[in-house]
Amino acid sequence: MAEYEPTSRRPIAQMFRRTAEAATQLCVRLSIHPDAISYLSILAALVAAICFWKSGEIPSLLIVAPLFCYLRLWFNMLDGMVAVAAGKASARGEILNDLPDRISDVIIFIGVAHSGLMNPMIGYWAAIFALLTAYVGLFGQAVGGQREFGGMMSKPWRMVALSLGAWTTFICQSYGASFNLGRLTILDWTCLVVIVGCLQTIIVRLKRIMAALENKPR
Hints:
Radius of gyration: 18 Å
Distance between the termini: 30 Å
Order of helices and strands: HHHHHHHEEH
Shape: globular
Number of domains: 1
Structural class: mainly alpha
Strand order of the largest sheet: 1-2
Largest sheet: 2 strands, antiparallel
CATH class: Mainly Alpha
Strand content: under 5%
Helix content: over 70%
CATH superfamily: CDP-alcohol phosphotransferase transmembrane (TM) domain
């Protein structure tokens, strides 16, 4: 039987990928299943969410929470690398690779929403648009083409935006400065940037998918 070839591989910066090369080899040697690594990404997202949730009471958690967001991204990358290196890539694996990502997005933004440092509704809308962005990206694959990863607010950039907002809020709190910009807090504005970026990303992906469908041989 021919080995399964993943139908969609997220483009990842080579420098970031290199950080997981040794871990990939170790996981293959220890026969660690890529599904287990996918579940670890949810655990990292849950820890990040709890840190965000409690950051209103313990400001230093604003430093820690984004680190677990990046750990979540690292696990998201590692599971695919292990699956390919160990020859365990499968259609089932693609589902288990993607579903934890969506759960993680929701968990993290809900944690931010209930931090007490922003309007919860804006945090919930950020979670909704994160889901929509990924959902639209899957359209291309669903109609027989390739999955779209384009746009300015893909998964990694959502986490980058969130980390910048969290660290800026912490710095303002540390120096006794206001973390309000107008009637909104820094985290409010951060999530609004994520929402606007997701809208741009959705439009870009839809355009590319529609163009691919028009050019597809009948």
